[in-house]
Amino acid sequence: MSDLDALTSSAYSQALEVIASVEPRVAEATRQELADQRGSLKLIASENYASPAVLLTMGTWFSDKYAEGTVGHRFYAGCQNVDTVESLAAEHARELFGAEYAYAQPHSGIDANLVAFWSILAHRIEGPWLEKAGRKNVNELTEEDWEALRKELGNQRLLGMSLDAGGHLTHGFRPNISGKMFHQQQYGTDPETGLLDYDLLAAKAREFKPLILVAGYSAYPRRVNFATMREIADEVGATLMVDMAHFAGLVAGKVFTGDEDPVPHAHVVTTTTHKSLRGPRGGMVLATEEYAPSVDRGCPMVLGGPLSHVMAAKAVALAEARQPGFRTYAQQVADNAKSLAEGFLTRGADLVTGGTDNHLVLLDVSSYGLTGRQAETALLDAGIVTNRNSVPADPNGAWYTSGIRLGTPALTTRGFGHDEFDRVAELIVHVLQNAQPGTTKAGGPSKASYVLGDGVAAKVKDASAEMLERHPLYPGLDLA
Ligand SMILES: *Cc1c(COP(=O)(O)O)cnc(C)c1O
Fold it and tell me: Can you tell me the distance from the alpha carbon of 124 to that of 85, in angstroms, rounded to the nearest whole number?
C-alpha cells in the first residue's frame, strides 16, 4: 500500500467513526454505498467516480461559509479563502477549456442552465431595453417600465433538441421551467439514421428565429459539429448556448477538438462537473468576454450562496483534468464506447444511429420483446446498473421507453478496457435474451414486470465479479 493509500484509508476510517458517534446508521449507509458501488457494473452514462482528493475536499468547513457575490465583491465579510478557491476553480477551467471566462458557482447542471438562460436574457433583452427606456439600471425602473420589460423577457424563443432525440429536459421540455419561460420549439434527428440533420435544423431556425439556440444532449450517441451550429445561430441572430454536461470530459481530454469542441464556437457553455469530467457534483458556466458580466450576476439573479466546499473540490478536479493522464482517460472512454458498441453489433443488437463516437451507447431493446423498464430492472437483478431511455419516436413513451442508455466513463475510471467492455456487451445480451415480459394482474402483457431465466442473474453476477475484482474501485482504500 502506498503512503497516499494508507492516508486515504485512515482518513475515511476515522471520518466514519466520527460520523458513527452521532448517527451510526448514516455511517453504516455510507459504508454500504461503497460496497454496493464496488460490487456492481456501473454503466449509467452520467455517473463516474471522483478521486479521493476530490471527495475529501467536499467534507470541510468551507461548507459553513456564506459567500454570496463574486470574487472580491461579496455580500458577506471574511470571504478571503472562498475567493482563493473560487478563483482557482475558474482559473483551472479557463486554462483547461481555453475559455475567456468561467463561473464556478452553479450548484448543478440545471442551475448552470438557469444562470445561462437569465444571463443571455439580461445581455440580449434587458440591457438594450434599459438603454431605450433611458434608465441606467434596474433600480430606476417604474412600475410601467417593469410591466413592459416583463413582456419583453417573457416573449422570447428557444430552440433545443427534443427529449426523445437525446436532448435534456432543461432544453425547452414542457414540464421544465425552460419550456414555460420561453416559447419553445424542438429539433429532432433523422427518423431513418437517428442522426442530427443540420439542414432541417437550419430551416427550422430560419422559420422560428430563436433568441437562443441550445445544442448539447444527454442521450445522443454521436458528436455534434458546433461550427455548423454557430453558423446557423449567426444566420438567425441567435445566441448559441452549448450544454456539454455529458461530454465535458471528452472536451477537457481533447477527444473533441476543432469543430467538435464547443468552447471556441458557443457564446455560452454550461456543464456539470460530476459526469465525464469526474469532479464533484456541481455545475459551471463558461462564456465569452461579451457575456461574462451578465453570467457573473448568476448570484443573486438565480443562485443563493455558493457551495464553497464544492467549488474547492471543483478546483481540485479541474487540476486533475489538466494532468496529461486525463487525456489518456478521455480517449479510453471513447475507445471503450466503441468496443461496447461493437460487442453489441456483433451479437445482433440494435443500436440507435448504428453505433457511437462519444461516451455512450443507446441500445434499442424492442427486438428482445422488452420495454426499457423491463430491461433496466432485469439487468439490475444481474448486478448491471443502467437506465432506461426513450429512443427516437418511442412507441412506449418516456416512462416505459424502448431503450437502455449505457456509458463508459465510470468503468473506464476503474480501468476497464476493450476486452472487459466486449464481455459487458455479451453479459447484457445474455440477460436480455433470457428475459421475457411478464403479465399484468388482469392477465394482459405487462410493460413493467418480467421473468428472468433460472440462474441467469447468478451466472452474470459471477462473471461480473471476476472483472470487478480485477479492476477494484478505489484500490488503495481499505476501510477498517
Ligand atoms: C445531467 C444534465 C443536466 C443536469 O445536471 P444536474 O446536475 O443533474 O442538474 C443538464 N443538462 C444536460 C445535458 C445533462 O446531461
Answer: 31
